[in-house]
């Protein structure tokens, strides 16, 4: 059984790699295919491995929440798994071709994440990531995607989300209402764990709009909330001793709203 | 969104505990340690730094109490502790003293006590005595509506603030020219001064401001009713960098002073609401302020089409214009405005202008397609 699961994993990777090579040759956007390939790899792992093994083999950034895994199609057999993977890649190829057909070829930039996934993104998206833009400016790198810019602190999953954010943000920017709705929807789809990774990635790449949007979301969640609420919200254990906490509260009593009885307070 | 890492750690542990209970527990704890001691502080530092104004100091102080590691991380971020906002809070004077006695507020740059009505001279004197060093970097002080403060309090607080750039103390009848004397003596770098509603300021005070603040950028003299042409002229001759000038509800000035407004080449905002002596001739002088973006002529009853047309021709960057209550203007001035400013004007109030017949939204939008606001005064 272990052998079988191992071989199916290798086959899966080969399929994904072929798909990626095909995509590059036909100038299809890497993002969608990478996401599909990653999702497929995740789903086949879930099927063929013991839960404990699967859990161990995932990196922190690759762990999928219960809600997300419901949306990942799970293949009943290895055969189906292969078919599903190929079908998905074909679908994404067709979709990508449909969007690029008739459109003017735009300059692309290659970005390589810490987990080895390469993304080809439009130059305007790279510009949104000020760290990437600075790298391009400093090295006078050719933006024809010949050299993949290494992103040492960003995983593929976060980069995929950032690219998605940039694109959707651009579409939604036509009206303030749309933009607000999109930002709320985008943030609502993330759990705190994912939001943490994304904030750190957005900070590293200096993607200001995303960083502000996520910060707004967290600030809104903790604004005017008790210390206990914030601890619970972030799952943080209280390391203060009772004496330390009491002393701290006393020193900072002026800041808390219950300093004295007043309706305006 | 409140599904946090703890959930993963717990499920992780449960799955592995059967095989290697001791080792697994240690691994789990170290992950949790990283989350509590590094990740959460890092994220919250980013949140607080990205949106410094969205969380009050009350929120920030609460965050310090979440955990020692968060306390350390946030304390290291100096910009988070540069602002104290006690707007409308009671007991604000004592709170401010308590806050300024803490090391983290040793470089505070902004203090807002607007409508903190219990703040009085005694608090400000105590701050001077106890927290003198904490205010050496202060750049902005808002004492609006603190009506218990007098010249004595102003002397005390300004003596601690050599770097002050913005000072606001509107609606305070206890402030006199003597208070302004302390301000100009102690604070040499003021570029934004709001003494709106300080009815006891006279031409002497205006002269002090003119002589000491040639680089002043924003000045609000609303309802400083003791001022005369002489006081205003001294300001207009010397404060040539003014970008914002508010003369709301000052009806005693004459054209002699208004004409001098043309000296302010950088002026962007001008409020002349209630300037009942303002004539078309003075308005044509004001039209030389080419950078004007906002002009309030509400109840300037002597103005006619002629004055507004000169503004239309001279001030082509105009975005905000109120002609509310001027009966002497007609459709003619709007047509002229449309020729030169139609692509800029977003706010236009012509309510009460009975000489203007094309006053419906549709008609105004034909002349000014970018209009968003049709009423300034309710």
TrEMBL record, chain A:
A Gene Ontology term for the protein's cellular component: cytoplasm
Signal sequence interval, chain numbering: none
Pathway annotation from the record: Protein modification; protein ubiquitination
Pfam families recorded: Skp1, Skp1_POZ
GO biological process: jasmonic acid mediated signaling pathway; protein ubiquitination; SCF-dependent proteasomal ubiquitin-dependent protein catabolic process
Residue numbers spanned by region Disordered: 31-107
Keyword Hydrolase assigned: no
Domain of life the protein comes from: Eukaryota
Record domain SKP1 component dimerisation: where: 208-255
Residue ranges constituting the SKP1 component POZ domain according to the UniProt record: 108-170
Biased composition (Basic and acidic residues): 52-70, 79-93
The keyword Manganese is annotated on this UniProt entry: no
SUPFAM superfamilies hit by this protein: POZ domain (SSF54695), Skp1 dimerisation domain-like (SSF81382)
GO MF annotation list: cullin family protein binding
Keyword set, alphabetical order: Ubl conjugation pathway
Similarity comment: family membership: Belongs to the SKP1 family.
Protein name: SKP1-like protein
UniProt organism field: Glycine max
From TrEMBL, chain B:
This protein's name: F-box/LRR-repeat protein 15-like leucin rich repeat domain-containing protein
Organism listed in the record: Glycine max
Domain F-box/LRR-repeat protein 15-like leucin rich repeat positions: 176-364
SMART domains from the UniProt entry: LRR_CC
Gene3D superfamilies associated with the record: Ribonuclease Inhibitor
GO cellular component assignments: cytoplasm
Lineage, top ranks: Eukaryota, Viridiplantae, Streptophyta, Embryophyta, Tracheophyta
């Amino acid at each position: 059984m272990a052998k079988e699961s191992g071989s199916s994993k290798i086959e899966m990777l080969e399929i994904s790699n072929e798909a990626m090579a095909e995509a590059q040759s036909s100038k299809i956007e890497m993002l969608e295919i990478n996401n599909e390939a990653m999702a497929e790899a995740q789903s086949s792992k879930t099927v063929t491995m013991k839960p404990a093994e699967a859990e161990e083999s995932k990196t922190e950034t690759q762990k999928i929440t219960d809600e997300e895994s419901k949306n990942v199609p799970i293949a009943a057999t290895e055969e189906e798994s292969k078919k599903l993977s190929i079908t998905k890649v074909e679908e994404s190829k067709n979709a990508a071709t449909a969007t690029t057909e008739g459109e003017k070829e735009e300059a692309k930039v290659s970005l390589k994440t810490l987990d080895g996934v390469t993304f080809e993104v439009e130059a305007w998206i790279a510009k949104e990531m000020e760290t990437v833009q600075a790298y391009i400016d400093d090295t006078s790198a050719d933006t024809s995607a010949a050299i993949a810019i290494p992103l040492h602190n960003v995983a593929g999953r976060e980069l995929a989300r950032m690219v998605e954010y940039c694109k959707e943000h651009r579409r939604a920017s036509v009206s303030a209402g749309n933009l607000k709705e999109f930002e709320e929807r985008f943030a609502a789809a993330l759990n705190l764990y994912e939001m943490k990774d994304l904030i750190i990635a957005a900070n590293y790449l200096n993607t200001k709009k995303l960083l502000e949007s996520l910060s707004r979301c967290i600030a809104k969640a903790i604004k005017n909330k008790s210390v206990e609420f914030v601890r619970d919200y972030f799952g943080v254990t209280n390391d203060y001793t009772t004496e330390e906490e009491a002393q701290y509260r006393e020193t900072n009593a002026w800041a808390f709203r219950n300093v004295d009885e007043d309706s305006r307070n | 969104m409140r599904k946090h890492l703890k959930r993963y750690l717990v499920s992780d542990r449960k799955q592995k505990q059967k095989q290697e209970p001791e080792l697994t527990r240690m691994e789990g704890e170290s992950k949790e340690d990283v989350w509590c001691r590094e990740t959460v502080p890092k994220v919250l530092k980013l949140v607080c730094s990205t949106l410094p104004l969205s969380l009050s100091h009350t929120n920030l102080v609460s965050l310090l109490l979440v955990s020692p590691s968060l306390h350390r991380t946030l304390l290291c971020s100096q910009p988070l502790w540069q602002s104290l906002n006690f707007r409308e809070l009671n007991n604000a004077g004592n709170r401010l003293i308590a806050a300024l006695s803490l090391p983290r507020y040793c470089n505070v740059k902004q203090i807002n006590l607007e409508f903190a009505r219990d703040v009085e001279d005694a608090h400000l004197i105590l701050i001077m005595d106890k927290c003198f060093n904490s205010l050496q970097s202060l750049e902005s002080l808002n004492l609006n509506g603190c009506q218990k403060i007098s010249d004595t309090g102003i002397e005390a607080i300004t003596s601690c603030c050599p770097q002050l750039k913005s000072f606001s103390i509107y609606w305070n009848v206890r402030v006199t020219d003597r208070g302004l004397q302390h301000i100009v003596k102690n604070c040499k770098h003021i570029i934004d001064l709001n003494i709106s509603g300080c009815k006891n300021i006279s031409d002497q005070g205006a002269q002090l401001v003119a002589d000491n603040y040639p680089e002043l950028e924003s000045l609000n003299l609303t309802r400083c009713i003791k001022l005369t042409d002489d006081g205003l002229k001294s300001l207009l001759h010397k404060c040539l960098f003014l970008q914002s000038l508010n003369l709301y509800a000052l009806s005693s000035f004459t054209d002699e002073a208004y004409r001098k407004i043309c000296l302010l080449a950088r002026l962007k905002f001008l409020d002349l609401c209630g300037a009942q002596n303002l004539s078309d001739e003075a308005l044509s002088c004001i039209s030389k302020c080419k950078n004007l973006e906002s002009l309030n002529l509400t109840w300037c009853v002597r103005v006619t089409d002629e004055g507004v047309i000169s503004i239309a021709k001279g001030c082509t960057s105009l975005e905000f214009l109120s002609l509310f209550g001027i009966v002497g203007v007609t459709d003619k001035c709007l047509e002229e405005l449309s020729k030169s400013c139609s692509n800029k004007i977003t706010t236009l109030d012509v309510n009460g202008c009975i000489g203007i017949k094309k006053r419906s939204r549709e008609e105004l939008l034909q002349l000014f397609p970018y209009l968003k606001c049709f009423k300034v005064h309710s």
